[in-house]
Prior knowledge:
- There is one protein chain.
- By secondary structure, the chain is an all-alpha fold.
- The protein has one domain (13-250).
- The chain has helices at 5-11, 19-30, 32-45, 50-59, 66-83, 88-102, 108-129, 136-153, 162-176, 181-196, 204-212, 217-223, 230-247.
- α2 (19-30) packs across α8 (136-153), α3 runs antiparallel to α7 and α5 (66-83) runs antiparallel to α6 (88-102).
- The mean pLDDT is 90.
Amino acid sequence: MKNKRYTNEIARLDPHTDWHRIAFLLTFHCFPWDMEKALEFALFRTFGIPAVSRLLAATGEFTERTRKRYDDTELILYEILENGMDSERGRQAIARMNAMHGRFRIANEDYLYVLSTFIFEPIRWMDKFGWRPFTPKEKEAIFINYRELAIRMGIKEVPETLEAFEAFNKNYERDHFIYDPANNLVGLKTLDLLMGFYLPSLLIPRSRPLAISLMDEPLRRAMGFKNPPKLLEKLVWIGMKTRASLLKLLPETGIPKLGTKKKRHTYPEGYDINELGTFGRLRKSDY
């Protein structure tokens, strides 16, 4: 691939030692838009689990302060990926995330499932819509990257292989994707937020079927979403495949499209990692 500089760099790397570099290149150079959308859908997918959506609905974080909660989540994850887990900013972000989660009783298997979505949704998205699928090396690097994050989050019993973790992901969804009004409430609020990045507010309600076309039927059922017209699904699929074919001909992004550099209405003057979320600052000794 003569015009794919970063894909070629990844081919020379070892996923067992260069997992962070590979994850960085995939996210910010090879597939910047696709990875952003895949991670949005990974987060969205967790709302199909009543235990998750009920907690978010009860706290009001994804219903009353949707944009701030979304930005806080995204910024924390980007801080970790952009700077590395063991950098000062990476440690700050992980400490902030752990402190936020630590205020609630969250089962280990729920942590594992959320973690698994950040591995498998990008893999599945690239299989369907990327200009190329991930290679086995890239999949292994993504798995190791999130396994390392699990260690720093205190998540236990992480499956030892990518295949075992995918089996866990599928079994968990089979057992826990159940419709609940909280799923629908949190899902609609978040869906409208994500579509609002591209559309005027008046067009969002009529345009929801476009986004729902990108979801599989088990997720739609769990969220209480109606299946969109088959013709619309087909047109969306053709549009995404056409986009992928064009991207295959273009060079990869030279300047990394870092998530922390995006302009955000929530933080027009910038942000402090220790102020993300809904509670007081952490001390430096906390991370």
